[in-house]
Amino acid sequence: MNLPLKIAKRYLVSKKSHSVINIISLVSVCGIAIASMALVCVLSVFNGFQDLIASLFSTIDPQIKVIPIQGKTFDASDPAIQEMAQWPEIAQISPVIEENVLLIYGDRQVPALLKGVTNQYEKQTRIDDIIIDGHFLLHDTVTDYATIGVGLANSLATGAGFRRPLMAYVPKRKARINMANPSSSLSSGRLFMTAVFRVNQAEYDDQLAIVPIDFARRLFDYTTEASALEITLQKNANEANIMERIQGQLGDNFEVKNRIEQKEASFKMVQIEKWMSYLILGFILMIASFNAIGSLSMLIIDKKADIDTLKSLGADNRLISRIFLTEGWLISAVGAVTGIIIGILLCWGQQTFGWIKLGEMSEAFIIEAYPVSVQLLDIAAVLALVLLLGFFTAWYPVRYLKNIWMK
């Protein structure tokens, strides 16, 4: 153990000649600990909400999605795509068609996003986990079926098992509009409702209808076209490496996205809010660290006799400065470690017991209590901030007072 650290540790725990110095030191440690604890808890709550959003999207979104950069569709029978299906790292690869349509049920009509999927869709997603009415089915020997979001079902006043067919209308791609008979310019298809899902995300619940891809191709006058590829990887596959390999296989005309990139706006907003909170709480931590300036200044004055003794023993001003700089760092480090440990314990308790609820109407939300997720990067960011502030709060009084006491 080096000499400055050993002396600084002694000064930290030893009783000072003036008890007020002990009190101020304790206040400094407690202030830093509380701010550090708050930082850990707040950042962990944002992580929890991000994980919650990811879990909601992952229920219905693919692990990897490939979309064309130019145009709406591409040929899904391309040999490069067929070759990808044979890669051992890929568990499932399915073409999908996503287009806007007009859905009519009885006297109600609502614009919607029609998503045509293959029979592999149920295996690629956890669609069964979000079904709230009926059961997921694409087609049988008699007819085709649709699974729609709960908001869309409410707008159409329909539900699973309703006997009246659901009609879908789109303009014909290869026909001109006939003003004398506009209906002749539309393609139509008939479906029956088999299930209603709820993701608690408006972009899905209020406008998404999942149908067989063959039905979608007939409706939009497609043959082997697709608007996207949805890919599921094997459990041990490296997602980043496979995405890079897919990009190289398909070329620059396609964009390859994982789940976070598919919903980049949602995740980016959470990240912005998270790090803005980090800056605000960091400012509060900086104010709490100012207590260390007073504590360290009074400690230097209190230890004037020790400084004279050390100088008589041959210690130079640099060594004495390092002692008190280390003392300031120790105050910050003790406060930071204490606060981080308490913050982690509080997050564990919140995650295990759900102490803090979302409010009186918590039963109306997806979860009842605030979600938390402690991440190592956040702990490192909090510790780094505290130590950085600790250095500057220690450096100022040492630099100012050494001209007086260290001559």
UniProtKB/TrEMBL annotation:
Domain ABC3 transporter permease C-terminal: 279-403
This protein's UniProt keywords: Cell membrane, Membrane, Transmembrane, Transmembrane helix
Membrane-crossing segments per the record: 20-46, 275-301, 328-351, 379-398
GO biological process, one term: lipoprotein localization to outer membrane
Entry keyword annotation includes ATP-binding: no
Membrane protein topology class: Multi-pass membrane protein
InterPro entries per the UniProt record, alphabetical: ABC3_permease_C (IPR003838), Lipoprotein-release_system (IPR051447), MacB_PCD (IPR025857)
Protein name as it appears in the record: ABC transporter permease
Originating species: Candidatus Gallibacteroides avistercoris
